[in-house]
Amino acid sequence: MTESAVRIKDLSFGYTKERLFSNLDLSLHGGNIYGLLGKNGAGKTSLLKLICGLRFPDAGACSVLGREPRHRPAALLEEIYFLPEEFHTPAISGDLYRRIYAPFYPRFSEEAFREYSLEFELPQGKKLSELSYGQKKKFLLAFGLATRCRLVLLDEPTNGLDIPSKSQFRKLLARAGEEERIILISTHQVRDMENLIDPIIILDEGRIIFQQSMYEVTRRLQAAMEVQEPSGDGVLYAEKTLGGYVVVRTSSGGEETQLDLETLFNTVIANRDRIRELFVSPDMEGREGEKAREDSKASGGGATAESGMEDA
Fold it and tell me: Does any domain span residue 89?
């Protein structure tokens, strides 16, 4: 395993005396498009802001590309592009915006920006403030991907995009992946991200409770539509739907099966102890393993245990 480009260790953070994160650990590696999933209020946006230095941890360590984002050094900021869910665009043309802000990113590609703008069918000559919300977002997505930053943070990037634009975004994002680049996407719109985000990170109750590649997921879990209400120890999650039940079970044969992200998320949230047992090896060493075992004992079942860390 290569050295983590983003490394968070024992991080604690809160807006009040009540902690949002407590002893949070996370490692991210280049060449991946990560999906960050969680319930409303889980802290996904706050985590993105901590990573890019817009929020400061109360305790613990946060290292990004070998530097501390809380100090906001220029050499780090030129390698980070963050597009929040809520944003402001100035009353200037897209061309002037590019000429003003592109110099802050040394690897900005004019050619890529033109290509992405054409793909998104962005109108030319208008002020950004005159565009619709979806058009503004497409412009900022095109600009962000053209920066060639090593770390791209996107908060709900498909919100406000129409159906054709979502398809265009997925195509551009797939092309924008590079060996050293990390793209971290926080989203509730998991169906928009199917077959694109991988690995999957799930944040809940102040901890990363799941971080696995879809390859490992499909090897260890299997989903099927069943007519009868399921039962048995192998059942991890079941949901009543039209025509039967969507059932997630442990995989017995090690063969890959298809499991959509929404069902995966619901399965992890509903049965996190069993999921932790399935994805964390019994002989896991290091501090993450010890912390998982301690949390499991304290909670009577491991409901808040760390699981599936890539460095484990």
Answer: yes
> What DSSP designation does 93 have?
B
What is the tens place of the pLDDT at every residue in 195-214? 899 999 999 999 999 999 99
Domain range for 37 is 30-58+65-198
Asked if the structure places residue 305 within a domain, the reply is no
Q: Answer with the residue of higher pLDDT: 259 or 280.
A: 259
Alpha carbon distance 269, 260 (integer Å) = 15
Which residues are CB-neighbours of 121 under 8 A, at least 6 positions away?
none
CA distance 45 to 28: 17
Q: Which of 132, 163, 198 represents a domain boundary (last residue)? A: 198
Question: Average of pLDDT values for 247-257?
Answer: 75
Report how far apart, in Å, the C-alpha atoms of 40 and of each of 19, 44, 78, 203, 204 are.
Answer: 16, 9, 30, 10, 10
The CA R_g of the chain, rounded to the nearest whole Å, is 21
Residue where a domain stops, chosen among 198, 227, 242? 198
What token pair was written down for 245? 């039940």
Query: Domain check: are 216 and 194 in the same one?
Result: no
**SS3 state of residue 298:** helix
Cα-Cα-Cα-Cα torsion 33, 39, 43, 49, nearest 10 degrees, comes to 40
What total of structural domains would you count in the chain? 2
Residue 225 in contact with residue 242, Cβ under 8 Å? no
- 37 and 184 in a single domain? The answer is yes
Residue range 43-94, pLDDT digits in tens: 999 999 999 999 999 999 999 999 999 999 999 999 999 999 999 999 999 9
Q: 114 by DSSP, 3-state: which?
A: helix
Task: Give residue-wise pLDDT tens across range 296-309.
Answer: 444 343 332 333 33
Residue 27: band (very low, low, confident or very high) from pLDDT cuts 50, 70, 90 = very high
Using CA atoms, how far apart are residues 79 and 100, in angstroms rounded to an integer? 17
Q: Are residues 211 and 310 in contact, defined by beta-carbon separation less than 8 angstroms?
A: yes
- Residue 170 sits in the same domain as residue 257: no
